[in-house]
Each structure stands twice: as C-alpha cells, then as structure tokens.
Amino acid sequence: MRKITFGGANSLDNFIARKDHAVDWLLWCDEAAAVMAGYWKTIDAILMGRKTYEVALRGSKGKSPYPGMKTYVFSKTIKPEAHRDVTIVARDAAGFVRRLKNEPGKDICLMGGGEFAKSMFDAGLIDEIGLNIHPVLLGSGIPLFHAMERQIDLELAESQTFKNGCVCVRYRVLHRQVS
Amino acid sequence: MKKDRRKHEPKIIVYIATSADGFIARPDGSYDWLDRPHPKGDYGMPEFFKSIDSIIWGRKTYSQTLEKKVDLSVFGSGIKHYIFSRQPTAHKSSDPSVEFVSEPIKQFAQRLRARPAAAGKPVKDIWMMGGGEIIASFLDAGEIDEFSIHVIPVMIGEGIPLVAPRHRTVPLELLATKKFPDGVVHLDYRVL
C-alpha cells in the first residue's frame, strides 16, 4: 500500500508560517536539500487542502505548483474547470484517499497546514510524519497540527542534525489495530 | 534580545518534555503520556538534577504537582523551590525550601542569579519547571537562557503549548541533540 507522509519545516513551537504566511525564518542548507531530493524520488502524488493550494498557486504564479506530480486538492468550493492542472476532490476525502493508497504508484505527500491533515489523521490515513525543526520560536502563526481528540503513538524512524541547527526527524505512525 | 550575561553566571533552563506535536501537558494539565519505561541512564536526568539547586514553578503547575501528592524531595535535597503567584500571601507552605514569589521577573531573576554559591562549590543553574505561561513571561523578560527538551514520540492532539502564544520571534541556537533507544529525542537550545 502507498504510504502517506505529512510534515514540513516547522518552528520549535510547531508553526509552519507566520500569520501572514511569511516563511522568512526558513533556513535552507545542502543537507536539507539532499533529504528533500531523496524524498521527492519516493513520491508521485501530492495531497493538499484549499488554503495550501492557494498559497502554492501564488508562489507558482498560477501555474501548476508541482509539475510532474499528480496533485489532488481537497475543496468543496474550488471549480475544477478553472484548475485543470490538478484534481479537485470535493466529496468524501477519506474514502478517496483510502482508494488512492490502494492504487499502484509511489508514495504520497500530504502538504500544508494542519487543517486538512487533521481529517486525514482522524481517518487513520497518515503513515509517517517528517519534521524539519527550525531553531526558532515564532510565538504565533499557522500551526502544523490542529487539535485532535485522540492520541497518536509514534515510533522514531530517523533523526538527523543539520549544521545550521535544524533537526530533521521522521516518525512512523503506530496505527491502532481495528478489532 | 541579546543578553549580556557573564560566563559563569547561573543559567535559567527550561528543562521539560513535550509531545511531538508540541504540548507539555493535556488541556487539564495531566501528563499521563509521560509515564513510560525510561531507558538506562534515565535520559540524563540524574546529571541534570545535580547541575541545579533551584526550581522555578508557575503556581498552577506547582498546585497540580502537590495534588498528585508528589513530594518535592524527589527533585533532590537542598533544592530551593520558587513558586510564582499573583497572590503570594494566599499560599502557605510549612516547607522551608518553598518560597512564594510575586516580584517582577527581571528583578527576581537578577536576585537569583546573583545568589552566593554554597561554600567551596560553584554556583548552580536554575530549573524552569513551567508551565507554558511562566515560560512565556520569563522569555518575554529575556530571562530564559536555554531550552532542554525531551520530545516524546507521541501526538497528544491538544494541550498546553511549551510557550504560551505571543507575537514575537525568538531565535535559538541548537547546542546538542541526542536520540534515545525508545525514540525520545533530546534537543538543547540556547536563547539568542
């Protein structure tokens, strides 16, 4: 089954951007670039919510934000005909993603803020979490994780310390056995 | 917030565990998710305990600890406990090692850092126990020197964040990381 990874670069207090979406605090380095390049080869599909898509579209000046990747945007309001580079999924996100995981293909990346990820966590569809913890406290902003009612146990798969003070950690989600 | 602190001045260190999603406790203050078998060496906690001689507590965190019938002596003998409270006279403790404080943070921190060491011994560091509100207040006052965090491999979903949200950016310098066999990751930062 295809694995879904959620994550991104976060501040120590778990924000992925300032309130105004600014990511001026992000540090880039060869080590992070190598990790990302390696990861990029393992995926062929990207999932995101509407808000993340809109931010990505602004970044790519309206063109497909991730050319070469099958991109799925989960939104009840976006009109599919105006966004032909991506697949808009308007209904039953969990059912859609569950089917997608069972289709042949590489692994899948879930991008963006925690709102859409929360529904995927709730549905038990996320298999891994990858964080690039930056050495900064932002105090406020767009959170990586949204409040969830249940606890999710993790297993540390990997942790790597970069020269610039970022710590890259990867966790496996320990899925609950459904009895 | 550049600090001009002398090299041998004692540091105020936030020594704490967080969940992987960044919480120090559940919304009701409970931390049952920390009850897990500790690996050999106990995450280096015994060494840390030896390096401090005072603990700063927020009033809520202190009360919750007492409610759990935790004896303060578990943190070592000869440790002085400072409990921050807006109404210090409302609290009493028969324990001579406990002092309730309502002093301005800056003034208190200066007093604490300047305290003399025990005869013939180096002056020790200060453990900031938390919770998130008092950590934020000390951080705002420029009186947190380091964060020493054990990240537990669990997402608790909701709870009390490490630092109460504010509108500010605090740059940190990563000092050290350590990975434990049970998946706990230790992160040490200096506040810049």
Brief overview:
With 179 residues, chain A is an alpha/beta fold. Chain A has helices at residues 30-40, 50-59, 93-102, 114-122; strands spanning 4-11, 15-17, 43-49, 70-74, 87-89, 107-110, 128-134, 136-137, 142-143, 152-161, 167-173. In chain B, helix 2 (59-67) links the parallel strand 3 and strand 4 (80-84).
Q: Sum up the overall morphology of chain B in one term.
A: globular
**General form of chain A:** globular
Count, helices of chain A: 4
Counting helices, strands and paired strands, the structural category of chain B is: alpha/beta
- Please give the radius of gyration of chain B in angstroms: 16 Å
* Radius of gyration of chain A over all CA atoms, rounded: 16 Å
What's the arrangement of strands in the largest beta sheet of chain A? 5-4-3-6-1-7-11-10
CATH homologous superfamily label of one domain in chain A: Dihydrofolate Reductase, subunit A
Order of helices and strands of chain A: EEHEHEEHEHEEEEE
Structure description:
- The complex is a heterodimer of chains A (179) and B (192).
- The mean pLDDT of chain A is 92.
- Chain A is α/β, with parallel strands linked by helices and 179 residues long.
- In chain A, the strands form two sheets. An eight-stranded mixed sheet of chain A has the order 5-4-3-6-1-7-11-10, with helices on both faces. A two-stranded antiparallel sheet of chain A has the order 2-9.
- The longest helix of chain A is centred in the first third of the chain and has 11 residues, at 30-40.
- Chain A has a domain at 4-46 and 93-173: 3-Layer(aba) Sandwich (Dihydrofolate Reductase, subunit A), CATH 3.40.430.
- The radius of gyration of chain A is 16 Å and the shape is globular.
- Chain A contains four helices and eleven strands.
- Chain B is of the alpha/beta class.
- Chain B has a single domain (12-191), classed as Dihydrofolate Reductase, subunit A (3-Layer(aba) Sandwich), CATH 3.40.430.10.
- In chain B, α2 (59-67) links the parallel β3 and β4 (80-84).
- The radius of gyration of chain B is 16 Å and the shape is globular.
- The interface between A and B is medium-sized, with 33 and 34 residues.
